[in-house]
């Protein structure tokens, strides 16, 4: 099972030579998800070898241009490349009209269907699940309604200790319950304890995406314990008042959230174009949370 | 006086590693004009050293995405960079609504004004002029209404031969007429011939932009004799039926137009992503029109 995050764009509103506007590609157990789609995302996907046509879900956090101006171009290109498989786009109300009106004026009838699922930017919950993954949303705190996301593997099955099970001659009908971590009644009428015949499931991995947002402790319950947290750090503490005014975070604030949420690893992005490099961000964050990296366009993180 | 064309994007609908979607920057006598604005144009401008804030006019040929999906991102960026000077956008009806609705949903109030001038894609004429340049539009032949453009220097003044003029003791009041190429009555009551006291003006240079279009001889009167003609050549003759079906041109067709319009030089662009290089286009065009080049992103042409 794979769980990989490819950073397609790690800049803020103003693109720079090295940082495109925001976009990330997530491959979680063969579910292919794009989070945000700033201008130029399709070129970045091509550059970093991400296959367009595998995408099944696109999540748009909010309607600032650096998070969605590349969406309609990507959708057009997927059509021109012959896509016929439908796609689901989760995003704020208003996105659908923008996308459909541009596709319509082009006069192109797409060869695939788009389903829009509207997010209101204030109601947390599961927005997608299948047998292997779940996608959750929760509200961030920004100038406009903005959605955070957690992508997590479903709770896995307990691992059956086949030899013990066989040795005790239990009925196969016990297996589904044991795998779910429940005790089961055997054909002999007795109840058997699942812990005697299974090992605990492999841990379910999870990734949280928090951009754009001011420092906001309300998000902690939603991201507690994730393996990898992406948190925006548009600024450093030297620009704290600017961060506050624009509802963005400093590297220190992002690290504080990571620490309080007890995540395994923190990655920082959405750096303002004013910073020539990311050293200051990294140093600042590490004073609070050691396991921090600042992302670069093209970096791949495996969980 | 300068007249330079910077190719910002020379690809067709599908961007490739080396060819971005269509955009060109024209500096004509210090008038800074962008023609078309495919996705990623703002990054290309940065890459090729074109100053955003000098732009005064943006011309959009038609509403296929590869010609305008970068516009709203560029307008946002100019705002973020502190622009306060207004800008005029010439383009098809429908463009204004697309741009304004996206800027509006962003919630940003631009620090500068945008004036839209609607082009109907069928009426030729002058759309802008000042004392140094003129911009003309004329209809191309594509799947949707599409505008071609000619940017030309205004007719220049005749060059006064000051020594001769002084030697004959003519009145200064003759000068304005002589410079316009008209005979003038001197204070002695006699009429003097401007040709005796002037040299003909330096020739006015001109640039024509024809993309996207099928082979269309009706454009010839509008582009006859231009110094530089950009004509799309999405395909080569080997793909002639595809060119016809999609209302695009082959390299040979573009060269035929260049020859019939007696232009000085032809440059070809808007190459389909199916071509790995431009050799075939160049060879094919040169069989008809010798002075042909296929453009690359970043090339600058001086007229």
Compose a concise summary of this entry.
Two copies of one chain form a homodimer. Chain A is an alpha/beta fold and 303 residues long.
**Which class best fits the helix and strand makeup of chain A?**
alpha/beta
Calculate the mean pLDDT score of chain A and round it.
Answer: 96
Strand order of the largest sheet of chain A: 6-5-4-3-2-1-18
Oligomer type = homodimer
What is the CATH-assigned architecture of the largest domain in chain A?
4-Layer Sandwich
What profile does the largest beta sheet of chain A have? 7 strands, mixed
Number of strands of chain A: 18
Using the CA coordinates, give the radius of gyration of chain A: 22 Å
The residue fraction in helices of chain A comes out at: 10-25%
CATH class of the largest domain in chain A: Alpha Beta
Helices of chain A, by number, come to 9
Q: What order do the SSEs of chain A take from the amino end to the carboxyl end, as H and E? A: EEEHEHEHEEEEEHHEEEEHEHHEHEE
Low-confidence stretches of chain A: none
Features:
Metallo-beta-lactamase, Chain A, 18 strands, 7-stranded mixed beta sheet, homodimer, alpha/beta, about 300 residues
Please provide a written account of the structure.
- Two copies of one chain form a homodimer.
- With 303 residues, chain A is an alpha/beta fold.
- Helices cover 23% and strands 27% of the residues of chain A.
- The first copy, chain A, has nine helices and 18 strands.
- In chain A, the strands form four sheets. Chain A has a seven-stranded mixed β-sheet with strand order 6-5-4-3-2-1-18. Chain A has a seven-stranded mixed β-sheet with strand order 7-8-9-14-15-16-17, with helices on one face. In chain A, strands 10-13 form a two-stranded antiparallel ribbon.
- In chain A, helix 8 (251-260) packs parallel to helix 9 (279-286).
- The model of chain A has no long low-confidence stretch (mean pLDDT 96).
- The A-B interface holds A 13-17, 20-21, 39-40, 42-43, 46-47, 63-66, 69-70, 72-73, 76-77, 80-81, 94, 97-98, 101-102, 105-107, 143-144 and B 13-17, 20-21, 39-40, 42-43, 46-47, 63-66, 69-70, 72-73, 76-77, 80-81, 94, 97-98, 101-102, 105-107, 143-144.
């Amino acid at each position: 099972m794979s769980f990989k995050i490819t950073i397609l764009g790690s800049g803020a509103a103003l693109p720079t030579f090295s940082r495109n506007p925001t976009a990330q590609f997530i491959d979680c157990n063969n579910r292919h998800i794009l989070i945000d789609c700033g201008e130029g995302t399709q070129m970045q996907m091509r550059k970093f070898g991400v296959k367009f046509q595998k995408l099944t879900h696109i999540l748009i956090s909010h309607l600032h241009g650096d998070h969605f101006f590349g969406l309609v171009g990507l959708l057009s290109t997927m059509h021109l490349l012959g896509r016929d498989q439908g796609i689901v786009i989760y995003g704020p109300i208003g996105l659908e009209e923008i996308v459909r009106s541009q596709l319509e004026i082009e006069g192109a009838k797409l060869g695939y269907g788009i389903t829009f699922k509207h997010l209101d930017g204030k109601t947390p919950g599961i927005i997608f699940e299948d047998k292997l993954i779940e996608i959750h949303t929760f509200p961030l705190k920004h100038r406009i309604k903005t959605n955070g996301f957690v992508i997590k593997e479903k709770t896995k099955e307990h691992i059956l200790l086949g030899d013990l099970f066989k040795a005790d001659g239990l009925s196969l009908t016990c297996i589904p319950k044991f795998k779910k971590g429940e005790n089961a009644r055997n054909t002999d009428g007795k109840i058997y304890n699942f812990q005697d015949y299974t090992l605990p499931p492999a841990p379910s991995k999870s990734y949280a995406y928090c951009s754009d947002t001011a420092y906001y402790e309300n998000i902690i319950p939603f991201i507690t314990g994730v393996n990898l947290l992406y948190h925006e750090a548009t600024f450093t503490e030297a620009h704290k008042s600017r961060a506050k005014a624009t509802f963005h975070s400093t590297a220190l604030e992002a690290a504080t959230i990571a620490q309080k949420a007890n995540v395994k690893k923190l990655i920082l992005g959405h750096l303002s174009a004013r910073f020539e490099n990311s050293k200051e961000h990294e140093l600042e964050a590490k004073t609070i949370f050691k396991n921090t990296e600042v992302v670069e366009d093209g970096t791949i993180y495996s969980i």
